């Protein structure tokens, strides 16, 4: 399989997964994307009147808080490769009465947009999962007006953890299950192909500078993820990136993994009955170097 074919297959599967999950994505009383998106907006500091692009906007966890801050004089465009996500994001903006938002179906790796038409590009848990994110960063630099900024979030990647999940889950997912995934999605291959440049802050800074950015700031802090129960978290995981793992597991092994995760998470319940655990998140901001 050629690199181009593999990339197209990857995007097709991701698009299908998130189209299928759009109706319940981030809506099952499991807190993660909303607090992370709000925190990214706090660190990126959109200003009144600015033009904002949110890459991989999902249901608007980053897009909508940014749109509120830029006000009616500003404009916010959310793009996502999954049409169902875009439809739901538009409905959510309407439900919240936010009128300065536009949403479009678009491949975030190759945004078909005019040069220098934004003041801020955002991407929460989206940009870094593109097949060639470093090349995409340079395209985002071209979209920014002079002095424009970028802000995005990433997992805190390490070689010994499963790349789509907090460290807590590394011991819960037997490595033998990964044989059911396409080889390109094995953690070591994902790390080498997609994430190795994100692990070391020096490498990440160098990648941003090569893409045309300066004043890079990297800040790691946890998001406290909460869920009503272990079972609720597992149900929620079927609407996120882990959906790709669930889809490839045989029925018996999926059932065993489900019970293992539910048991481990229910052991973390607090006095109020909710499950809580920390998810390490990396917040990155930079300014275009012109």
Automatic annotation (TrEMBL):
The keyword Metal-binding does not apply. InterPro entries: Methyltransf_25 (IPR041698), SAM-dependent_MTases_sf (IPR029063). The keyword Cell division does not apply. Keywords: Methyltransferase, Plasmid, Transferase. GO terms for biological process: antibiotic biosynthetic process; methylation. SUPFAM superfamilies: S-adenosyl-L-methionine-dependent methyltransferases (SSF53335). One of its GO terms (molecular function) is methyltransferase activity. Residues 52-148 form the Methyltransferase domain. This is Methyltransferase domain-containing protein. The lineage of its organism: Bacteria, Bacillati, Actinomycetota, Actinomycetes, Kitasatosporales.
């Amino acid at each position: 399989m050629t690199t181009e074919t593999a990339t197209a297959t990857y995007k097709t599967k991701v698009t299908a997964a998130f189209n299928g999950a759009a109706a319940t994505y981030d809506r099952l009383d499991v807190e993660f994307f909303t607090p992370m998106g709000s925190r990214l907006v706090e660190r990126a500091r959109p200003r009144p009147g600015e033009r904002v692009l949110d890459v991989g906007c999902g249901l608007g966890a980053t897009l909508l808080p940014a749109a509120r801050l830029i006000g009616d004089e500003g404009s916010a465009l959310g793009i996502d490769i999954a049409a169902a996500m875009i439809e739901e994001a538009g409905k959510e903006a309407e439900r919240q009465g936010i009128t300065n938002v536009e949403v479009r179906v678009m491949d975030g790796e190759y945004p078909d947009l005019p040069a220098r038409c934004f003041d801020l590009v955002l991407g929460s848990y989206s940009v870094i999962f593109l097949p060639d994110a470093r090349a995409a960063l340079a395209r985002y630099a071209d979209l920014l007006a002079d002095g424009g900024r970028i802000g995005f979030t990433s997992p805190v990647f390490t070689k010994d953890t499963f790349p789509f999940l907090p460290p807590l889950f590394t011991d819960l997912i037997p490595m033998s299950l990964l044989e059911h995934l396409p080889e390109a999605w094995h953690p070591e291959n994902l790390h080498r192909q997609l994430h190795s440049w994100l692990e070391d802050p020096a490498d990440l800074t160098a990648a941003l500078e090569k893409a045309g950015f300066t004043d890079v700031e990297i800040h790691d802090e946890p998001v406290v993820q909460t869920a009503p129960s272990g079972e609720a978290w597992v149900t929620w995981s079927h609407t996120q990136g882990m959906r790709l793992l669930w889809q490839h597991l045989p029925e018996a092994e999926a059932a065993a993994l489900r019970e293992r995760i539910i048991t481990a998470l229910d052991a973390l319940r607090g006095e109020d009955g909710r499950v809580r655990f920390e998810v390490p998140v990396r917040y990155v901001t930079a300014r275009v170097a012109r």
